[in-house]
Amino acid sequence: MTDPFCGLLIEKLPNLRRYALSLCRSGDQADDLVQSTVERALKARSSFDPASKIEAWLFRILRNAWIDILRKNKVRGHELEYDDAPEIADNVCHQGDARLMVSSVMAAVEQLPDGQREVLLLVSVEGLSYAEVAEILEVPMGTIMSRLCRARRALASKMGLSSE
């Protein structure tokens, strides 16, 4: 018989990885961040309220782990892997229109300020409510709505879809 808590945790791993990728923009670093989140969740499982959504609880743990990493990096400095350097030329001639659109949308999302990008992805991709995102980020719900509005406007502008 399997542990229900571990089953829920395993079920949410893809969501955690997506969120981790949106924060650190590196596959290897995202995997490390998810692993750290799972370790912290297992250690703190007694503090999880089964009546609440595990996803919001896990996202908060992941975000706090990310903040810890950022603090360490401020002291240590930014490290860049040679393989992570962006390519100078992108061979897009053979890609389909849909792939180009996704690529350009993701590039535009990457240019958003961290707070806006984070809120946009948690609401739009992860499907969390404004209240859940406010709880995860520990900010008022009005701040979430404001950041989301600015993120959507900036994204529309970058994609040439704004009417302004």
TrEMBL record:
SUPFAM superfamilies: Sigma2 domain of RNA polymerase sigma factors, Sigma3 and sigma4 domains of RNA polymerase sigma factors. It comes from the Bacteria. CDD domains: Sigma70_r4. Residues 11-74 form the RNA polymerase sigma-70 region domain. Residues 105-155 form the RNA polymerase sigma factor 70 region 4 type domain. Pfam families: Sigma70_r2, Sigma70_r4_2. Gene3D superfamilies: 1.10.1740.10, Winged helix-like DNA-binding domain superfamily/Winged helix DNA-binding domain (1.10.10.10). Keywords: Sigma factor, Transcription, Transcription regulation. PANTHER family: RNA POLYMERASE ECF-TYPE SIGMA FACTO (PTHR43133), RNA POLYMERASE SIGMA FACTOR RFAY-RELATED (PTHR43133:SF25). Belongs to the sigma-70 factor family. ECF subfamily. This is RNA polymerase sigma factor. It comes from Roseibium porphyridii. The lineage of its organism: Bacteria, Pseudomonadati, Pseudomonadota, Alphaproteobacteria, Hyphomicrobiales.
